[in-house]
Amino acid sequence: MSDSIVKSRSRLVISAAAGNSGKTLISLTIITLLRSMGYAVQPFKKGPDYIDPKWLSAAAGKNCYNLDYYLFADKLKENFFNHIQNDDIAFIEGNHALYDSIDIEGFGSTAHMAKIFNAPLILIVNCFKMSRSVAALVNGYKNFDSDLNLCGVILNNCGGKRHREKLIDAVKHYCNVPVLGAIDRMSDNYLPERYIGLETTMDQNTIAQKIDAIVKGIGPSLDMEKIREIALNAPEFSETIRKKIAKPSKIIIGVARDEAFNFYYNENIEELEKLGAKIVFFSPLYDKGLPLVDALYFGGGYPELFAKELAENHSMKTEIKEKVENYMPVYGECGGLIYLSNTVTVNNSTFEMVNVFSADIGLTPKAQGRGYAEYETSISEPASTDTNFFWNIPHNMAFKGHEFHYSKVVNENFLFQPLYKVKRGSGIYAGFDGIKYKNCIGSYIHIHALSVSWWAKSFVDAALQYKELKK
Predict the structure, then answer these.
(1) Exposed, middle or buried, 56 (CB in 10 Å: 0-12/13-18/19+)?
(2) Domains in the chain: how many in total?
(3) CATH number for position 268
(4) Which of 201, 216, 264, 409 to pair with 468, CA 20 to 30 A apart?
(5) Is there a contact between 15 and 94 (Cβ–Cβ < 8 Å)?
(6) Which one from 151, 175, 334, 440 is the annotated catalytic residue?
(7) Do both 391 and 434 map to the same domain?
(8) Quick check: helix, strand or coil at residue 322?
(9) Around Cβ 454, how many Cβ atoms within 10 Å?
(10) Helix (H, G, I), strand (E, B), or coil: what is residue 260?
C-alpha cells in the first residue's frame, strides 16, 4: 500500500432530465471529440452498468470504470482517483434521470455524484413534442438543488430548424443556463438496444464504425469549445488515496470473453490481478479447448443468443466439466450460471450446456430479477466441512450486488444447498441463490469487487489451493 494525494481539475458529468434522452450517444460524441482535440479522457459510468461502459471504453480508447454509491460509497473517491492520474479529463456519464435516487433524500443520484466530486454538470433534455415548456423544465431542474453546478443544457430530439429556434429562444429568455447544443431527431437506428441497454454482441470494428457515424451525426450540433472550457475549468479537487501495489502473479485465471460473455466490471479483473492473478481471456464460442489455467471466470452476457453455438462446442464443454470434476475453482454469474447449468430453452428449443449444475434454465419475456440486490452468505454445513472446498466465503455476511436476468430455473421443486440468502432481489429459487458443486459456484447476482471485499481474495486463494492440489 502507498498513500498519495491525487488532484483533479478537469472533469465533467453528463446527465438527463429523463431516461432515454440520448446520454450515451452524446457522451460518445463528446469523448471522441475531446480526444480529437488532443485530450486523454478517462470515462466513468454511474451505476451498476456493463453495457454503456463498453461503448464508452471504445470511444475513449481505455477502460471505463463504475461509480456506484449504493454498492461502494466508501470506495467511490478511491476508485475515481486511482484511475485519473494519467489523464487530462475525467468524464462521468450518469444513469436514469438527474435526481433519481435510492431514497427520498437523493443519495446515490447523478446530482449527488456530481456534488461529491464537485464537478460541473451538463443536462440533456429530450425535447420531443415540447417547445416553450422546455424553459420551465430547465429552470425546475436548476432550482431543485441550488448546490448543483449546472453549467449548460443540450437540447436533443429537435424537430428541425424552426423547432430548434423556439427551444433555444425559450431557454435564453427564461433560464440563466447556456445552450451547448441542439440536436435534430435521428431517423437512423444509431445504436441497437436489448432489454434496457445497448447491445454488446457486436465486434470492435462494428462498434468503432457505429461511433464514427454517431459523431458525424451529432458533433456539428454541439458547441465543443464551450463544453471543453466547462470541463477544463472545474474547481480543483483532491483526495488522499491508498493505492494497492499488485502482487507478483502466482496463478492464472481464465476469463470467458466473446459475444456471449462480456459483462464484467473492469475493477473485478483488476482486483484479481492486484491479488496475484494473471488473466487470460478465452472464448467458449470459438476456442476448442481451455488455456492452461488454475481457475475459470464466466461473467454475464447473452449466452441465450448463442445457445446453439455454445451447445455444439462439445470439446469446450467436456473440458470445462472435467476441470470442475477435478476441483478447479470456477465462478459463473448470471450468463455464466446459464452456461454451467444442464440445459437452456430458448424459443421452445432446448440446448445442452456444460451440465455442472442440474438446473434447467428457461428464458422468459419478463425480467425475473432487476435492480439492486441484497444477499447474505449462508454456507451450509456440508460446504463448510468439505476439505476440498477451497472458497473462503464468510458466514452470515451481508453484501450487495445487482440482478438483471430474463431467465429462471424451470425444474419443479429444484433442490440445492444455497450459498446465499436473498434479502432483496430474486435469486435462483425461493429466496435463495448460489449453487455449489465441488469448487464451482454459480449465481444470478452480479458482484462488484469493491463492494464485496471477500470475493476476489477468496477466488485467488481457491486457485492457489487448486494449483497446490495438482502438484
Answers:
(1) buried
(2) 2
(3) 3.40.50.880
(4) 264
(5) yes
(6) 334
(7) yes
(8) helix
(9) 17
(10) coil
Residues 14 and 79 in one domain: yes
- 167 close to 182: Cβ distance less than 8 angstroms: yes
Region for residue 38 given its phi and psi (left: phi exceeds 0; alpha: psi -120 to 50; beta: otherwise)? left
Q: How far apart are CA 22 and CA 288, in angstroms?
A: 40
**H helix intervals, 44-144:** 51-60, 69-72, 76-82, 110-116, 133-144
Q: Are residues 229 and 276 in the same domain?
A: no
What is the C-alpha separation between 33 and 84, in angstroms, rounded?
Answer: 19
Question: Domain range holding 414?
Answer: 245-470
Say if residue 212 is in the same domain as residue 263.
no
- Cβ pair 159, 185 in contact under 8 A: yes
Residues 48-103 pLDDT 10s: 988 899 999 999 999 999 999 999 999 999 999 999 988 899 999 999 999 999 89
Whether residues 231 and 370 share a domain: the answer is no
Which of 200, 215, 240 is a domain's end point? 240
pLDDT in tens, 290-320: 999 999 999 999 999 999 999 999 999 999 9
Which residues fall within 8 angstroms of residue 270, CB to CB, at 6 or more apart? none
Could you tell me if 236 and 285 lie in one domain? Answer: no
Q: Which residues contact 361 (CB under 8 A, 6 or more apart)?
A: 337, 338, 341, 343, 344, 345, 353, 407, 408, 409, 410
Q: 392-395 long-range CB contacts below 8 Å, 24 or more apart? A: 392/454, 392/457, 392/458, 392/461, 392/462, 393/419, 393/454, 393/458, 394/454
288 in the same domain as 197: no
Of 240, 267, 286, the residue that ends a domain is 240
Residue whose C-alpha cell reads 478537469 in the numeric block: 10
Active site residue 334: yes
For 373, the enclosing helix (H) or strand (E) is: strand 369-377
**Domain identity same for 277 and 191:** no
What does pTM read for this prediction? Answer: 0.93
> CA-based angle 267:265:254, to the nearest 5?
90
| Rounded alpha-carbon distances, angstroms, from residue 357 to 77, 321, 353 | 39, 10, 10
| CA-based end-to-end distance of the chain | 32
